[in-house]
Task: structure prediction
Amino acid sequence: MITTVTLNPMLDKTVRISRLVPGEITRAREVSSIVGGKGVNVARQLHSLGVPVRSTGVWGGEVGAQCERLLSGEGVPHDFLRIAGMTREGVTYLDDEGESTSVFEPAHQVTLEEAGALLARCHPFIRESTWVACCGSSPGPATDRIYADLVRTARAEQVKSAVDTYGPTLHLALAAAPDLVKMNREEYRNTIGVALEDERFIFDALITFVELGIGCAILTDGPRPCYVASRSGCWKITPPAVHPVNPTGSGDSMLAGILYGFARGWDEPTSVCFGAAAGAANAAVWNVSAVALGAIVPLLQEVTVTELNFP
Result:
């Protein structure tokens, strides 16, 4: 069982239109909705791969109730804490030329009491899991420490933990030394305050994380190569080239693919290669983080991995 935790989910609505003209009335041709949020996406992708999973976190109000109905309809196992604040919505306007414009509402409010209740709810889930994946942003100060607390709880229960977040939440989680940390270049720059350009600087940064006790550190850059460091070595992994249709959730599909590999006892480069193929497969379709194993495996042969050794 893998448990994913999402502090800031969203009802993600896509509105298909002919053309968006500012200042004018635009009539939609089609509207579809899905539950968004990094941890939800990771759970959806793991579920599509046949991995036992549970998605948890917080949601509230009528939007939260709709999220619950939608995720239940997908068959993704979940157990979210209901809060008083209204979960946010995001709307993407997609025109006939394939150009999209997105508007995301502010995050819902979470109180300290609700944050404590979520931690209490997660503890028995962690004991039943092999991995706990803490994914996505924190909606506010009351929840900034939750991922770090869950990482420490997981270690006490001898359960592995993965973190994919940014900002103060990432700073706190790094201090707790999770087994896996994944971030993109922008998240690293905005959190640490340093832009990583040269490969040597990238690996110096990732090796620093490993020396702090983090098991595996991964820096991604969209469809470009990603970099991996652990106590076993350092690798540059180049994902397959695909025609992009919708990159939303590709990083989450990648993390799900990595966890899929680790759950099967694969080593770091093999697991990240599978994750890179999963992320590329997701980018090549419109649906978010729901690609089948059969769509991922053919792309594996196009992933390249290079072990790097620095003097």
Notes: The mean pLDDT is 94. Residues 112-127 form the longest helix (16 residues).
